């Protein structure tokens, strides 16, 4: 065999190899054996001969042979170094394997059900919702907190973090929630999670059994839907109105829930705020039914149109409410820290369940966040962002009124980080979103926020994020949005796909 040609073929077709020649030779031979280019039982040339043929040091060839022998690809004999009999199939069998369905078709049903539209998190697009103004984050202050956290960390703290989370952070969160959101809690009731998604997954697995019924807002947050589906819960979509989740008496009778997911301060994605009357009614009915209310308070800090109502959790000392929050929106998504507040009576049992599951957080980041809150930097940042987001929301609303009057209708403008708009043009939001993404514009379609087959066509529109949108770009972004809608409308009229 011409091993020089083999190396050249590997360079063209094989996986990217490491830089050193000895690693490159090892990877090439391994690739050739696995692919049948070197047959099982074939005798390889001596290390000296192959070194001469390839013009490399003999030690490099020795390294490759020894590594492959240790992994079981080669075997030594009195006849030299042979390719081991590994039971690999090539030729016709390979063709048969190529015809097999791809691995994704063999995923579990629950995983297939979770597949949906990618949220472009790794490709930030203008107007795509969910991302805060990262360029406005006080990175210097955060670095100082991180540096202090690492300076104060000793060898004992390099072990797994406490199951419930860093106590100073839980104390800081409890104090903040008591003052700002009216939550009734102590540090013992706070659990640090991997973002709000970690909190939702914790609720789904710890508070319900497989097959139990979970009510979700429709349209509603896809992350909650994913968490409940992954826990094998039965999802029941409940319609929302101008006051948020709006269950009927028939819903309570026909599908009594174990979990009820709500976003009462700023319904996601439509933006409604749940009235006090409905909050109290939900608490009463959940208690009578034996259900848990999962209150996701994801962005109430940024409400600017009046003072938001206090959290549902704080309305009743014995309310069956689990309160979920996150720092992904208030600080930055990569932090991946959230919190869950549970009733005091449930906390010990939940602590045991988490300990058994091995869920542990990152201590340095938790210590830094506690410092960031206690030093006043967190509240300072929130005030700045509340003012900034108000200006950006007003700029986006004004631009929509100037350039897309009659094309879209705005809702959900009381605060937060996004607007919801209904599309009045005779085209689908999914088609417009697809065309917009191809042109670098993030118009997240509204209809997929509904469960499939539950009236998504009634919510034909977009969820527009403005947190990361500079004020001076609002007009051009909205004009761009109008051009995309017009182009898709022309394509539909002309019968083009």
Description:
The protein has 497 residues and is α/β, with parallel strands linked by helices. Helices cover 42% and strands 13% of the residues. The protein has 17 helices and 15 strands. The chain has an 8-stranded mixed sheet with strand order 4-11-10-9-8-5-6-7. Strands 12-13-15-14 form a 4-stranded antiparallel sheet. α2 packs across α4, α7 packs across α14 and α16 crosses α17. The longest helix is centred in the C-terminal third of the chain and has 27 residues. About 1% of the residues have low confidence.
Briefly characterize the structure.
By secondary structure, the chain is α/β, with parallel strands linked by helices. 42% of the residues lie in helices and 13% in strands.
